[in-house]
Amino acid sequence: MVFLSELLFVIFSCYGILVLYLLIGWISSKTNVPIISSPTTKISILVPFRNEEDNIETCIESLAKLDYPTELFEIILINDNSEDNSAAIVNNKIISLTNFKLLNLEGAKGKKASIALGISVSKHSLITTTDADCTFQKNWLSTLSYFYQDTHAKMIIAPVLFKHNNLFSKIQALDFLSLTGTMISSHSLNQKILSNGANLTFEKSAFNAVNGYADIDSIPTGDDILLMQKFAKTYPEGIKTIKNKNSVVFTKPAHNWAEFVNQRVRWASKIGSHQNIFSKILGAIVLLTNASLLVVLGLTVINIKLVEFFLVPFALKCFIDFLFLFLVAFSFKEKRLLWLIIFTEIFNVFVIPIITIASFFKGYSWKGRQY
Q1: Model confidence pLDDT, tens digit, residues 45-90
Q2: How does strand 155-157 pair with strand 239-241?
Q3: DSSP letter at 194?
Q4: How many structural domains comprise the chain?
Q5: Are residues 331 and 358 in the same domain?
Q6: What is the C-alpha to C-alpha distance for residues 82 and 290, in angstroms, rounded to an integer?
Q7: Helix extents (H) in the chain
Q8: Which domain holds residue 84?
């Protein structure tokens, strides 16, 4: 009993210090983006896609509504050998959209190859990548442009949030909100551990200077985090994060449990390629915290008297996480998700250890390909 209580104390002390550290990062990160009356930045938006017939039309319609001067941006959709009707849908949809174009990836495959192709034919010096299952606020591109004109960043890390319409999607949305908050907080603390290719902007010249995806092109994922790490080595002060609700891109959560597990195993597969020590420490603390709760919960089945060893640290974790999530949810107008904090915490007690173990033994599928 004494050993168990001491072990839990050490683990949760580390967790509390970690969240406090992230809270400091969140509070110190900047929110305001100056409004510039006449944007001058020319931007090429790249949308790689594969087997996205259920999403691509909505994505194009959302991009077509952006309130940014048409002459200042182009949208390049890159078809990565789709096996469905995606390319035909794109062709029909962009006929009357003069700043849209469709490319077909040939002789190669994968998201990195698609983006590299898009960059090679892009007309503008600033590149923004996103995904085919995303939708955009009208002033999304304007906000990115204003931020770039103010900072002249080599790379801009911007937030992504989940859409939600049922309990499962809302739990995922709150959980993903914590990842987005961690991304912004850690960058504020000069810990460059997270980025998201669904809302990533960088200078074409800087991309070429770091030799693009060379040395990381054999890894199926990582077009965002691994590329960011290459930028960080060459431009340590050139990577900026934007914490502004107008810069948010919205994407879809997993529809079912199997899709969710596959998604998280794919995300976990990037960890082995990380070079940042802080990311590994963070991952270890989060894993140990949830795994210890799962183990103690299992022990209560044997001895109900141990229930306090679960309830006390669980309640403490809920309180600590709520403090951080409240600030993030408030900034992004997602406070309506906070009532799900207990459900999300219980969800993670089971999910995080299971996904971690599965990532060592289970491959994943991505857009109809097995890895």
Answers
A1: 999 999 999 999 999 999 999 999 999 999 999 999 999 999 999 9
A2: parallel
A3: -
A4: 2
A5: yes
A6: 39
A7: 2-28, 56-64, 86-93, 111-121, 140-151, 167-188, 204-209, 225-234, 257-268, 277-302, 307-331, 341-361
A8: 32-159+196-253
